[in-house]
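Standup notes, protein team

Yesterday: finished cleaning the Streptomyces yangpuensis set.
Today: ABC transporter substrate-binding protein structure.
Blockers: none.

Input for ABC transporter substrate-binding protein:
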Amino acid sequence: MRGAKSAKWVVGAVVVALAATACGGGDGDSKDKGNAAGGGTFRLGSTEPDTIDPGRAHESTGILLSNALFTGLYSNTPDGLAEPALAESASSDEGCTSWTFKVKPDTKFSNGEPVDAEAFARGWARAAHKAAASDVAYHLAGIKGYEQLQDGSAKTFSGVTTPDPHTIKVDLAKADCEFVLKTAHTAYSPVPKVAKVGEEDKAFGEAPVGNGPFKMDGSWEHNKAINLVRNDDYGLTKAKLDKVQVTLLNDKTAHQLEYDGFQAGTFDYAHIPTPMLKTAEAKFKPQNKWFAKDTNGMNFVLPIGDNGPTNSKDARLAISYAIDRQAIAKGVFQGFQTPSTTIVPPAFPKAYQKDLCGSCVKQDVAKAKEHAEKAGLKPGTEIKFSFNTGAGHEEWVQAVARQLEDVLGLKVKLDGKDFPGLLKEQQGATATGVYRFAWGADYPTPENFLFPLLHSASMNKDAEGNVVGDNRARYNNPEFDKLVDTARATKDEAARTAMYKQAEKMAMEDMALIPTFNRSQFRLMATDKFNGLDDINFNEDPILEKISLKK
């Protein structure tokens, strides 16, 4: 996903051991069938999302809203455990090529339609179809029939069958012993019959009809607001809030506007501009309104690997060696961020390989110049550094640009734009230079960094050469692909993790991505008005369904 308190993360064996027993998603849900609402309106600000359609959502605001509107088979706890939502059970065959899910009965969409096995099959096919042009369709790529949906020659997955209204059988093209984890992604959401499969569906994207704890209150008011109300027909534990109001802010000053709005009482939750972190901590921590957490995200400089000045390993190494991460962490981030030396974050301790990126450990001017000379990066070479505005990146991006100019003599052209514009440009066939890039896991496995960001199947170039997927670096290494594919097919967690580590080492040796900082998140929360603000979810968002108004 595009993105002081430590989380404990549990991966791998947590779900592959799911045999066929029902788990906690259904048990106890009936306790809240009555009016459990505590009322209240929770207000936050955000930038305009790219999409809130569950089959296409891929960046932070879109994921926040899609998760509020839709509930799938599985979800992730804040601490990185996969847990059943609408799945009563999940089981696989011995070879991990066939999975069977039992769907909780008697739940429905907010328009009254039943949420049955067919609704899931419909939603998955819709997300994978060519007409959806979804950047996250690759999450479904392992299912048989994916290629036919991608080229538009089919409207259903040949590998998905529904023997009865409450059973989904999934046949995979390749073994995947962690497939169950992927069903927590919004691309695996069920959709009602009103959602169109195999054709453009703008109307549904403007006002999605879902089955989540909240539903749309009217349509998306572009560049103004997206409002949600509690879904009183929700099939699991009902939300307490009456409403959630998301004010869409100017992308150039969004974090500052959130921060100012929180102080003025306009917002109940806010990001904090980087220069204001110490001030905010000093003011709001004593009030118990300050929140900090090391999360499962990572920050990178994304080099375009097939075009322009970063299309060689030496060029990418030169840039990495030239960056003084420690100086930026201490100066720009005031100690609130830590330098990164890996692709897979420390939040996955069994797979974490500290200092895997040798060029990331310490700035080395001599080596930076040596690799620049090998790459033909001569002083005066122009390189574009693109980033999204309004989200606290200006200061550190400027610091990196100055270091590249000072160490290598490059002419760095900074190019700030709104987030949807940045994402679109990264995908373009003419993309060049480097980009500010971040990634937060969609589900709890190191594979969710390696496959989406670096596997060739996640690049999926169209006829014009545009990338339709999250491998924006255009990394293409058949040996890396083979390692990741083999790991997915391996049941033993230790053996699987060892292969993931080997694959990460291979990509790091190629300098496919340039790590910058591990991700720590800081928020301001109106704990004086609301309960349930003691954590953020796996996607680094407020847990809307657990927030309640204080009486």
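Follow-up from PR in the comments: The CA atoms of residues 195 and 201 lie 7 Å apart.
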